[in-house]
Amino acid sequence: GAGVSQTPSNKVTEKGKYVELRCDPISGHTALYWYRQSLGQGPEFLIYFQGTGAADDSGLPNDRFFAVRPEGSVSTLKIQRTERGDSAVYLCASSLGGQAVETQYFGPGTRLLVL
Amino acid sequence: GDSVTQMEGPVTLSEEAFLTINCTYTATGYPSLFWYVQYPGEGLQLLLKATKADDKGSNKGFEATYRKETTSFHLEKGSVQVSDSAVYFCALMGYGGSQGNLIFGKGTKLSVKP
Questions:
Q1: Distance of residue B103 Cα from the nearest chain A Cα, in angstroms
Q2: How confident is the model at residue B96 (pLDDT cuts 50, 70, 90)?
Q3: Which of A6, A98, B50, B77 could disulfide-link to A107, CB 3.0 to 4.6 Å?
Q4: In chain B, where do the E strands start and end?
Q5: What residue of A is the nearest CA neighbor of B5?
């Protein structure tokens, strides 16, 4: 079946602009996660949704970052007033939801470059 | 806070060589431990996991044993293939913490030569 999909695959923007990154989880997965991966580093947790609500947003670096999941399926990560330091690969993952330890299935990522 | 340290890469091996990638962790309580792999041009995928001390995770010939006494989860494979060339990430999920909070190491790039 279809895996996690993310769009766009690449995004180039200018400093100060607003961007939206989209994640389409595996059908039926109620848990959704966003991570950020900088060059040469492992992924860093940003936010976790269970259904429509953000269960844990402790990884969001500041208030320029915001994520929504209004219908409990597709999620959008929004970054305001982008900075060059926001350049990274943004990864989305989903899991079934409801268990203590679950396998997270990752999408291919969106590579964001802020000029 | 919780953290994962894994050996620096890149690691270059000949086909059929023995592989070890070291991973140690710092965590309170009893975390679950994971190895994820990223093949060239593909997304991260779970390779194996262990949820309690002395558990051994295994998949595709790879193994790792959860050692609480040494806070380690080293990845091993007896005979690597060219197709194992990838970046390997060790990760933990804290006990009782948010399901989402996977903490990753920096990754180890493995290249296997024919």
A1: 7
A2: low
A3: A6
A4: 3-6, 11-14, 19-21, 23-26, 32-38, 45-50, 56-59, 62-65, 75-77, 86-93, 102-104, 108-113
A5: A42
